[in-house]
Input
Amino acid sequence: MKNISILGSSGSIGVQALDFISKTKKEFKVCGLSVNSNIELLKKQIAKFNPVAVSVFSKEDADKLQKWCNEKKYKVKVFFGKEGLNKIASIKQVDMVLSSVVGSVGLEPLLCAIDSGKDIALANKESLVMAGRLIMQKAKEKGVAVLPVDSEHSAIFQCIGKENKKSIKRILLTASGGPFYKSDKNFKDITVEDALAHPTWKMGKKITIDSATLMNKGLEAIEASVLFDVPMDKIDILIHPQSVIHSMVEFNDGCVMAQLSNPDMTLPIQYALSYPERKNCYIKRLNLTEVAKLEFFKPDFKKFKCLQIAYKAAKTGGTMPAVMSASNEVAVKSFIDGKIKFDMIPYVVETVIKKHKVIKSKNISKYFEADLWARKQAENIIKNIEECK
Output
C-alpha cells in the first residue's frame, strides 16, 4: 500500500486523484489533505478517506474543523497556514506527496516533502519555474523521484522512457491554443468569461487564464527544461487544437515519439501515482477514426506576448523566472477580479521583469525574496493602472 498526501485536495487535480484512489482496491492510503478554504468539501474527504492530518489556510477555519472532527470522533489533526502545508507534506508514514496547489505557495511544502524523502507527483509548475534547478538537485541528493502530473510532461516522460537524454534532438510541447489562437478579437475587449471558456480542458481559473494568454505554455516549457535537463532552445511549441497528442520527443536519428489519448487528466494523474505500473483506466478510449484529423500550427509570439516573455525569462535564468511567475500570478488575479484588462497581463509582467536585477544563487531564500519583491512591484503597477482609469 502506498501512503499519500495531497496538497490541494479541493482543486481539479486533487479531486480527480481522490476519485482514482477511491476506485482502487486498497492500494493507496490517504494520510494527509490540504485545502485553502473549501471546508465543506474537506469534511466529505475526511469522512471518506480518514486521513491522519489535514490543513486549511486560516486558523479560524482550522479551529472550527478540529471541533467538528472531535465531535464526529475522527482522529484527525488539523493544521493551518504555510506551516500546515509543510506538516502535510512531511507526515512520517507518507511515501508520496501529490502537489497540486496553484502558485509559488507550493514551493516550501515541496521542499519539505523532498527533505523528508517523499516521492513527488508534481502538478505545481510554478515551483519548478521559480527554483527548478535547486529542487531537482535536492531531489537527486535525497534519492527522490519527481513524477510529472501535467499531461504534457507526463507525455514527454513516457516518450523518453529509458532513452539516453543525449539522444534527444528536441521536445515538441503541444498546446491547445486556448480560446484565442484563431481569434481576431481585440485583447482589450476580452472578458473574464471569454478567457475562462477553454475549448478542451476543464481547469482552475488561474491555469485557464494562463492558457488563454499562452503563459501556461511558457511555464510548461521552463518546467520541461528543468524536469528533463534539456535547454530551452531544444523545446518547440506546437498549437494542436484537438489535444490528442499531448507532446512529442524527436531523437537524433529522426524518430519522433508521441503519446496520444483523449484529453482527460485522469490518465496522467493515475500514471504518476501508480508508476512504474500501469493500472486500468476508465477514461474514454481514443478512436482515431472519430478524431479524423490532427492539426498543428506555429504559435504567434507577437500576438501572445506572455509566451515571448517566458522564453526570455528562462534564458536569462537566475531569479528572473521566479519574478516572471510571481508577477503573472498577481496580474492574472487582478484580471479575474476586474482590476485590469486582459491585455494588461503581459504589460504588468514585462514591466516588473524590466525592473529586476537578476541574482544567480544556490540560496533558496533569494528566490523567495525575488518572488515577494515581484508581487509588490506588480501590485504597485496595477494600482497605478486603476488610478489612471
Summary: The longest helix spans residues 364-387. The chain has a mean pLDDT of 95.
